[in-house]
Here is the input.
Amino acid sequence: MSKPRTISKGQQTREAIVSQAYDLARRDGLEGLTIGALADRVGMSKSGVFAHFGSREDLQLAVLEYATTHVTNSVFLPAFKTVARGLPRLRALVEGWYGFVTSLERGGCLVLAAVGEYDDKPGPIRDQLVVYQRQMRGQMERAVAMAIEIGHLRAASDPKQIAFEVYAMLLALHHDLRLFSDPLALQRTRTAVDAVIDRFLPAEGAGDPG
Amino acid sequence: MSKPRTISKGQQTREAIVSQAYDLARRDGLEGLTIGALADRVGMSKSGVFAHFGSREDLQLAVLEYATTHVTNSVFLPAFKTVARGLPRLRALVEGWYGFVTSLERGGCLVLAAVGEYDDKPGPIRDQLVVYQRQMRGQMERAVAMAIEIGHLRAASDPKQIAFEVYAMLLALHHDLRLFSDPLALQRTRTAVDAVIDRFLPAEGAGDPG
DNA sequence: GAAAAACACGAACGATCGTACTATATTGCG
DNA sequence: CGCAATATAGTACGATCGTTCGTGTTTTTC
Here is the structure.
């Protein structure tokens, strides 16, 4: 089926390791990820796991990339590929996030957790994290900008402002779900996001609304 | 001035230790706080520091309490004590947060960082953290509720919804300031909070506005 | 199938972790 | 002052950390 390109045994186990490391790091944080615990989980020796990365930091970077890809594939790609540009796509984006964040059975979003862990710890991990987060915010801003171009949102709207506010709600949803297990959090988030969008809707009677 | 209650040497040094631990934990997280590093910082032996708490977890709990008190004293108490109830106090609350979060030179808000670290790690620390966070959110909801009672906000408004949205913006502000060092974040937060409040303002011509 | 390359293991390293125990200073009280 | 209580230091412990190294074993390549 998918490209039958021969994947070496090494690549194969490396991916399995990263996948398990992702689950572990979702629980204990990227900083709490240890090679020993990871080795136990994948049923290998410490040195065997270690050899695939060369350093713990490289392992952490691999896990961070894996997590980012996971978010992208779960939230952004579906919306950008299968939903029409403009307001529908923007709504699909946040709906995708709802699904993503509520489906994480154990441990929250690793990327958000990493933000808290590394927002003040200089180094390669933080640098890469900033890149990833800028990309995600950028994608959101692009979705908003398209909605403005199409006329689904007012021309004078600031894409960065809207993306900021929507992102804020997603942050708060994650917060309240994970810390409070508040079943009303999702509903409140929907209300809030709708309100943000409403605020930037075109004046009535001006072109077809989304 | 303040109660001249004699404070034993032990209490004194314990407070100094917690204060230093707070600074350390702001940098490395509550989970990254180690007794050895803390002992070095305060110029004591490891065992000397340890004896004041009995366990690392108790130290972490003490630091968490210290951090919560710090937020309360910096943000909530001034607003509740010196600013008139209603919209002015609510605005003073968020302004207090702006000041608090922008004044943290090194390391972000320890409580927010702890949320990310412990939102999935059951135990006493998480339990206490939930208590503290519920208290803070509750205070915010109370400030909103007062504004509704007074008539500064519409009677039909849901205090929890408003507090949720305002809190979301404070989360996002903290996020963008610390990760992106975005100088526009504060301005965007103000815009967003104003928009939330505007949405719940009483219908025009109905009683004096705040 | 043989030679070369990649992979995995086990043992050991120095460091640091939290904690326990003992002994010595230092403090507070009568 | 003198005695009891407290506070701090020192040492040592078992565990675990990331990492290195040498040695087999498996996989890939020719």
